Amino acid sequence: MAPTWNFARPHNEGGATTQAHVDFARDTYEREIGREGFFGAASHVYHRNPPNAWSSIEGAAKPRAFNPASTATPAASPWDAQPLMHNAHVRVRYWRAEGSMDHLVRNGDGDELVFIHQGAGSLFCDFGHLPFESGDYLVLPRGTMWRIESDGPVEALLVESTNASYRLPDRGMLGRHALFDPGVLARPELDGAFRDQRKAGPWQVRVKRRNAQTVVTFPFNPLDAVSWKGDLYPVRLNVRDFRPVTSHRVHLPPSAHTTFLSDRFVICTLAPRPMESEPGAMKLPFFHSNDDYDEVVFYHRGRLRGRSAIVGEGTMTFHPSGVVHGPHPEALPHMFEHPLKMLESYSVMIDTRDALEIADLPAGTEIAGYAESWTGSIAVAPDAQTVP
Ligand SMILES: [Fe+2]
After folding, report:
1. Which of 150, 192, 226, 337 would staple 121 via disulfide (CB 3.0–4.6 Å)?
2. Residue 386 buriedness (CB in 10 A; 0-12 / 13-18 / 19+)
């Protein structure tokens, strides 16, 4: 069937700009109310006051920030990593390994995404040997047996796609080689390092199923493949190889940086990119409540825009759906004129279609005062200055 005629002009009330994120009145603050992330119906409301210049906020949807690296205790197994947040479709943990694993693991609950925040080493798995370093995503299909070897500590964010597979997003009109050429995806090899593993037993495989462990012991090393064929295997992608699309004329939503998809969440890579240059284009992310998604951002490397006094490398923020998020008070003056020409940081964003539960976290993991830091925006809220 032919596509529906879709030229309908959005309703415009009160003389709003006709192009989102561009040329709106400079004494207003744009907020997007949208559906299906950044893909569905949407309207932009232009407010006199910053839409998250609250004087207080309490309750379950309050924005939160965490520093898992500060309190994560070393764990020899990824299954003993610090739980951070989960729902029925995704499980996020922070893993600090002190060195090589002395056992194998297999995730029976879903695909595992291992994002290496610190350290380097080798992954050994059913499919061979794959070196890794900081900034690597390792996508491990459900059922893969694996372990890591490392001379030093390794810190990683683990993102389990529970009961669903990771896949690459459709590039659509951008073409197959946008964001990254699939040619940069590395896969394990049955190389000398793989063949030189200790073959004699005993070797333990710790299988995770329904989030509980079953330990299988073999009198030999079950990573003993001599060959394999197929189109299902682990892949490695470094954030350096992610080449973001940008527009000098309009701020693109984070969905433009979608790196991996699952059924009920997406992983986006926020990588260095030039700032929008057209004078009328806003230079900051627009306010939005991300109305159908909870948003998690893990800050990996580099100087962060705004919020730098609160969150730094290895920290993460959590913005539940329903409460507006957007530029921090320290960034607000740069809505249209920004001192930077390039953004230099790397972050990993996880947007989940279903509400996340936050785990019981060790004392000191939560960064105090994050939600309250937006009260700084009251200083530029004209209606907050009027004496009743
Ligand atoms: Fe967002």
Report:
1. 150
2. exposed
288 alpha carbon to ligand 1 midpoint, in Å? Answer: 6
Residue with tokens 């913005």: 319
- Ligand 1 center–CA 321 separation, angstroms: 9
State in Å: Cα 318 to ligand 1 middle. Answer: 10
At residue 320, what is the residue type? P
Do 92 and 296 meet the contact criterion of CB atoms below 8 Å apart? yes
- The amino acid that residue 316 corresponds to is M
**How many whole angstroms from 238 Cα to the centroid of ligand 1?**
23
Domains of the chain: which residue ranges?
58-65+244-380, 76-239
Find, among 132, 131, 151, the residue nearest to 194 by Cα: 131
In CATH, the architecture of 76-239 is Sandwich (2.60)
Phi-psi group of 127: left, alpha or beta (phi > 0 → left; psi -120 to 50 → alpha; rest → beta): alpha
What are the C-alpha distances in Å from 54 to residues 21, 25, 62, 288?
Answer: 23, 22, 11, 15
CA–CA distance, 158 with 81 (Å, rounded to integer): 9
Query: What is the pLDDT confidence band of residue 387, given thresholds at 50, 70 and 90?
Result: low
**What's the pTM value of the predicted model, to 2 decimals?**
0.96
Q: For 114-141, what is each residue's pLDDT tens digit?
A: 999 999 999 999 999 999 999 999 999 9
Look up the CATH architecture of domain 58-65+244-380: Sandwich (2.60)
163 Cα–ligand 1 center, Å: 25
Residue pair 324/377 in contact by the 8 Å Cβ criterion = no
8-state DSSP, 376? G
**Structure confidence by residue, pLDDT tens digits, 336-382:** 999 889 999 999 999 999 999 999 999 999 999 999 999 999 999 99
Cα three-residue angle 119-163-94, rounded to 5 degrees: 25
CA of 323 to the centre of ligand 1 (A): 10
Mean pLDDT of the chain, nearest integer: 95
What spacing in Å lies between the alpha carbon of 179 and ligand 1's midpoint? 20
Look at residue 306 and tell me whether its pLDDT is greater than 60: no
* pLDDT tens column, 4-23: 898 999 999 999 999 999 99
